[in-house]
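Example 3.2
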Amino acid sequence: MGLRKDFGVSKENYTTCVPHSINEVVDFSEQVFRFCEKHRISSKKTMAISLCVEEMGTNALTLRTR
């Protein structure tokens, strides 16, 4: 998934991940967590976003291996 070039997100605020293992999903979730903290997103929202990333990544890996 990507963003259109005219979406208006700077390179330092954009990332992508194509995980091949649960460890990569967890690592990416930790990156997202640090990003949220750096940008002063509330701890409640940060935890929810990080959890969503882990769930989506885990589901993607699970569905890929079926």
